[in-house]
Write a structure and sequence with these properties.
By secondary structure, the protein is an all-beta fold. It has no helices and eleven strands. The strands form two sheets. Strands 2, 4, 5, 6, 9, 10 and 11 form a seven-stranded mixed sheet that branches. The protein has a four-stranded antiparallel sheet with strand order 1-3-8-7, with no helix packed on it. A hairpin with a 4-residue loop joins strand 7 (68-73) and strand 8.
């Protein structure tokens, strides 16, 4: 069982930066693929980025590539999402997710555990 708690969301102007954190409980954190998804008002939840258990493999949605960076610290049971050059279209609730598998996935239903989400609002 893994519990995920996101933090770091907030209101930022376009072009600004935010850093999200996702703290995980459980001793097997390093065994999980971790991902970030987001859901904008009136839209379906979408994949943002994922990272392998070692941190050596990352996968980004085209919409955030070059602007967002995912990283993880297995010693701290935490995954991070550094978001730079934010745009109004990045406004959404951002969710952290964990997948008990060695393979990363962009599919929401492949993830086993979810956080409660943190709101990111980018003003124009």
């Amino acid at each position: 069982q893994v519990q995920l708690v996101e933090s770091g969301g907030g209101l930022v102007q376009a072009g600004g930066s935010l850093r999200l954190s996702c703290a995980a409980s459980g001793r097997t954190f390093r065994s999980y693929v971790m991902g970030w998804f987001r859901q904008a008002p009136g839209k379906a939840r979408e994949f943002v980025v994922s990272i392998s258990w070692s941190g050596s493999n990352t996968y980004y949605a085209d919409s955030v590539k070059g602007r967002f960076t995912i990283s993880r610290d297995n010693a701290k049971n935490t995954v991070y999402l550094q978001m730079n050059s934010l745009k109004p279209e990045d406004t959404a609730v951002y969710y952290c997710a964990a997948r008990w598998d060695v393979r990363a996935s962009v599919t929401m239903t492949d993830y086993d555990y979810w956080g409660q989400g943190t709101q990111v609002t980018v003003s124009s």
